[in-house]
Specification:
- The chain is 24% helix and 31% strand.
- The chain is α+β, with helices and mostly antiparallel strands.
- The strands form five sheets. Strands 5, 6, 12, 13, 14, 15, 21 and 22 form an eight-stranded mixed beta sheet that branches. An eight-stranded mixed beta sheet has the order 20-16-19-18-17-9-10-23, with helices on both faces. It has a three-stranded antiparallel beta sheet with strand order 7-11-8.
- Flavin-adenine dinucleotide binds next to helix 1, strand 7, strand 13, strand 16 and strand 20.
- The site of flavin-adenine dinucleotide has 39 residues, from helix 1, strand 7, strand 13, strand 16 and strand 20.
Length: 434
């Protein structure tokens, strides 16, 4: 039977059309080969990536290439891209690794961001903005009855955007490249290089083989699924109650207010979380729902379907994209650094515990991590003590706000999150006031 090299396969489907017995099937993220395969080999030259092999062919292990740079960043989300951009802007040699073949895709986000979280990094550009937001509505649901609260803005603070993250994330990586970083897609970090307890690089694998890349500093920006922290000996396990589990449809053909985000606080349908409707322009919206993990017997996608069916203006829409994802709503782990390594963004659990917003925090953390890494390298000391400046500055800035929101979240048990008192807290967190 033909075998598929997953590190190379880009799921393009070119091989499927030439197979005479229909033995190849392009599943969403996997190319499957069925028993009907005759091993005729016609598919082999059709593959642009050289990912198919006849079983009897000797698998020639690709040589391990050795490489080195000042900083390796694992993960090209907003946190990793900004970290790479900042470190490169300080004149360091930087390698930004992304395991997916397309930066920013698939999206795992409702794509909302406040104006003042975005502006320190990049000027808003219609190329990656789907909608401009000028107001927010919070709907509390109690015993099935809805009450609508219009959150009052605080001038520019309330203005925000719904992004097109497929483009936005890539633009940030392009900024890193323009600053001098090397960007490598479809290349996954598989582990860390260590000298004793010190992190001295990464092992990475992509279509071009396996590489050992020595680095003075490794920045783990590898998202909710982060493994860099664990590999480095940092405790990043999330308690179940500190994770929101979410599902979202991009609904097309619906009648939504084009500049208003809506949050539904419904302890029955979204226990410990909320449902949202974020306009995306052109009669489309990201319609999603997040639940505190473990609080509902039904999966979020089922609750979301119920939420949509119970609102006429949504049920007329057509789901053109389904996404699923987890959001850490925890306090960041006690340690975010170790010798030669720092964590940023979702990997460091730096998401707002009340709203689940993490794009702005990831970019802020990325910039701080890039800057601290640069000064540690310049001083010739990348020990945990030197890098702990990152932890202190984070804790004194956004970390303080996160700690406050974590305490507020703990003060209001899930059943009380449709109360008026919680409403004031939530309205403040989404950038307005009740
Ligand atoms: P990510 O954006 O997750 O990027 C991590 C990257 O690392 C990924 O590209 C991944 O492929 C890559 N990677 C992982 N492992 C490896 C490896 N071993 N080697 C190489 N690459 C690797 N936040 C908001 O601010 N606003 C919202 O409206 C919002 N809505 C959300 C809705 C949902 C349903 C979800 C799930 C999240 C939402 N968030 C929102 C949170 C937001 O998406 C994240 O906080 C943000 O993306 C964090 O950025 P990051 O760079 O830390 O991680």
């Amino acid at each position: 039977m033909i075998s598929v090299d997953a590190a190379r396969c880009c799921y393009c489907g070119a091989c499927v059309s030439v197979c005479p017995v229909g033995a190849l099937d392009l599943q969403e993220t996997r190319l499957a080969v069925s028993e009907e395969c005759m091993e005729c080999g016609l598919c082999l030259p059709a593959c642009p990536m050289g990912a198919l092999r006849a079983t009897e062919a000797q698998v020639r292990p690709l040589p391990t290439i050795r490489d080195s740079c000042d900083v390796v960043v694992v993960g090209a989300g907003p946190g990793g891209a900004v970290a790479a951009w900042e470190a490169a802007a300080h004149g360091l040699s930087v390698l930004l690794l992304e395991k997916r073949q397309e930066i920013g895709s698939p999206v795992r986000c409702a794509e909302g961001i406040g104006h003042d979280a975005l502006l320190p990094f990049i000027e808003p550009d219609p190329a990656w903005i789907s909608a401009r937001i000028s107001s927010a509505r919070i709907i509390t649901v109690h015993d099935g009855r809805e009450r609508v609260w219009q959150a009052q803005g605080r001038g520019e603070r309330q203005v925000g955007y719904v992004l097109e993250r497929r483009v936005f994330d890539r633009v940030l990586a392009e900024k890193a490249a323009l600053a001098g970083a090397r960007v490598q897609v479809k290349t996954a970090a598989l582990g860390l290089l260590r000298e004793g307890q010190r992190v001295v690089g990464v092992v990475a694998e992509g279509p071009w083989g396996r590489r050992e890349i020595a680095a003075r500093v490794v920045i783990g920006a590898d998202g909710i699924e982060s493994r860099v922290g664990r590999w480095a000996g940092l405790e990043t396990t999330l308690p179940q109650q500190d994770q929101m589990t979410c599902a979202q449809f991009l609904l097309a053909g619906i009648d939504v207010a084009p500049h208003c985000t809506c949050y539904y606080l419904d302890p029955v349908l979204a226990p410990g979380g909320y449902a949202w409707v974020f306009p995306k322009g052109g009669q489309r919206a990201n319609v999603g729902l997040g639940v505190q993990a473990g609080l509902s017997a039904s999966a979020p996608v089922e609750l979301l379907t119920r939420f949509i069916e119970s609102h006429a203006f949504l049920s007329q829409g057509n789901p053109v994209t389904l996404i699923a994802g987890g959001v850490p709503v925890a306090m960041p782990p006690a340690r975010l650094v170790t010798d030669g390594c720092l964590l940023v963004g979702d990997a460091a659990r730096q998401v707002d515990p009340l709203t689940g917003g993490g794009i702005g925090n990831a970019m802020a953390a990325g910039r701080l991590a890039g800057r601290v890494a640069a000064s540690a390298i310049a001083a010739g000391d990348v020990s945990a003590v030197a890098l702990s400046r990152y932890e202190h500055e984070w804790a004194a800035g956004i970390g303080r706000q996160m700690a406050r929101n974590f305490r507020l979240r703990a003060r209001f048990p899930p059943a009380e999150r449709c109360s008026e008192r919680f409403l004031s807290v939530f309205a403040m967190a989404v950038g307005g006031s009740k």
